[in-house]
Amino acid sequence: MKRRQFLQYGLGAVVGSMGLTRLAHAADTLKIGVLIPLSGPAGLFGPSSRNCVDMGVQDINARGGILGRKIKAVVADAGVPPAQASQAAQRLWRGERVEALIGMHDSAVREAIVGVVNGQIPYIYTPVTEGGGCAKAVYVIGETPEQQLMPVVPWLAKNKNSKRWYLIGNDYIWPRKSNVVAKEAIKASGGTVVGEEYVPFTVDNFDSSLARIRDSGADSVLITLVGGASVGFNRAFASFGLPARVLRLGTLLDENTLLGIGAQNSQNLYSSAGYFAALTNPQARAFAKRYDSMFDAVKAPLSGLAESCYEGFLLLEAMAAKAGSVKSDAFDKAAAQGVSYDGPRGKTELQSHYAVKNIYLAQANGAAFSIVQEFANVPPGQSCSK
Q1: Residues 313-335 as b or e (16 or more Cβ within 10 Å = b)
Q2: Do 124 and 215 fall into the same domain?
Q3: Which of the listed residues 217, 240, 273 is the one where a domain comes to its end?
Q4: What is the pTM of this model?
Q5: I want to staple 181 with a disulfide (CB 3.0 to 4.6 A). Which of 93, 134, 145, 302 is the partner?
Q6: Range of 87's domain?
Q7: For 262-345, where are the alpha helices, taking DSSP H only?
Q8: DSSP annotation of 265
C-alpha cells in the first residue's frame, strides 16, 4: 500500500476504531437521571440530597455497577414548577439518554413527569407521597399517609392526649390526601378536627392562621407544609406562645427543616417518618458516620428526605439484578414478584409499586430529633396488584 493510500484509508480506520471505542465506553455507562429540588420552597432539601446521590453512585460503582455497567448520575432541578420540571425530565431522557429516573420532589412534579415519560423508562419516587398512583414503571419507596398517620395518631391520643386537631398544609394534592387519612385516624382515636386550611406556597405570613388555631381550642396541629413554609409557620407558632399547650406533628419535617425552625422554636414538635439521622440500627449508624466524614453536616445535615435518594439507588440496583435488565417491562415483572434490599433503614420490601417499612415517631430535642416510638413493618395501604 502506498503511503498516501495508508494515510487515506489506514488512518481513517484507526480513527474510526477509536470512535467506536469511545462509543463502546459511553454505552458501558448507565446514566441515571436524578431530579431533586435545588431551588424554590423545597430547595433547603437540595444540598443534602445531592450528597446522598453522590454516596449512592459511589457505593454502587464500588460493587461493580448495575448489571456490570458503571453508573453516572445526571442531576436536574425539580424545585421549579411542574411544567419546567417535566421539561427537565424530557431533556434527561431524550437529550442525556438516561435509562432510569430517580426523583425526590413534590407530587405535582411527579405527575407531570409521569405524563412525559409515560412508563418508557423506570422512575423511582423516593419521598413521602399521598399514594393512589399505579402508573407503569413508577415505583414508590416513600412513606404514605397510612404509614405515617394510622399508627401515630392513636399513639399520640393515648400517650399525649391529642384529641382536638387542626390541619394546615400547602394547597396541593399531598396535603389534601394526607388529611383524608388523618381524619380517619383522628375519628378512630376518639378525636375531632376543629379546623382545616390550605395555603399557597407563596404565603410567608401565618398570623391569621395562627390566630385561628389559638381560638379553635386545638391541642394538636398536623402540619403538611413544605420546606420554607414549614420553617416560617413553626417559627411564628412559637412567637404566638402556642408550643407549651399545643402539640405539633409534621409528616414532612426533616432535619433540614428543623435546623431552619431553630432549637428555640421546637418545643412539643414531633415528626413521623421512615428515617431519621438519629436511628441507632447498625446500618443507619454506619451510614450517618460516613456521611459526616464526607460532607459538611452542619450546612447540609443528613435527613430522611436526603437519605431517600440514596435508597432510590439501592432499589434500582436490586430491581435491575432481579429483572436482568433496566427496561420498564422487566422492572414491572420484578416489582410484581416483590423486591427487597438492605439499606440504612434496615430491610425495605417493595410489594408491587409501594414499600412496606418501619415508621418512627421522633420528637424535636432542640435542633435534633430523638426517636420516641417505632412501628415495625407498616404496610403502605396502597396496592397496584392486578
Answers
A1: bbbbbbbbebbebbbbebbbebb
A2: no
A3: 273
A4: 0.89
A5: 145
A6: 27-143+279-351
A7: 282-294, 304-323, 328-337
A8: G
Whether 98 and 38 share a structural domain: yes
CA distances (Å), 143 to each of 135, 211, 259, 339, 356, in order? 17, 31, 22, 17, 9
DSSP state letter for 38: S
Say which residues have a Cβ less than 8 Å from residue 139's Cβ, sequence separation at least 6. Answer: 122, 123, 124, 125, 315, 319, 331, 335, 350, 353
Report the interhelical angle of 282-294 vs 46-62 (nearest 10°). Answer: 110
Smallest CA-to-CA distance from 350 within 359, 360, 358, 341 is with 341
Instruction: Please tell me the total number of residues recorded for the chain in this structure.
Output: 386
Half-sphere exposure of 300 (CA within 13 A, CB side): 19
| Judgement on whether residues 85 and 128 belong to the same structural domain of the protein | yes
pLDDT digits (tens, 9 = 90+) for 250-290: 999 999 999 999 999 999 999 999 999 999 999 999 999 99
The per-residue pLDDT for range 315-353, each reduced to its tens digit, is: 999 999 999 999 999 999 999 999 999 999 999 999 889
Q: Is residue 2 part of a domain?
A: no
Shared domain check, 195 and 123: no
pLDDT in tens, 160-215: 999 999 999 999 999 999 999 999 999 999 999 999 999 999 999 999 999 999 99
Work out how many domains the chain is built from and give that number. Answer: 2
Indicate which CATH number applies to the domain containing 77. 3.40.50.2300
Q: Among positive and negative, which fits the CA dihedral 254, 361, 144, 165?
A: negative
- Asked if 355 and 348 count as a contact pair (C-beta separation under 8 A), the reply is yes
Report, in angstroms and rounded to the nearest whole number, the Rg of the chain calculated over CA atoms. 23
Stated as kind and residue range, the H or E segment containing 88 is helix 82-90
Same domain, 170 and 100: no
Other beta carbons within 10 angstroms of residue 123's beta carbon come to 26
199 lies in the same domain as 242: yes
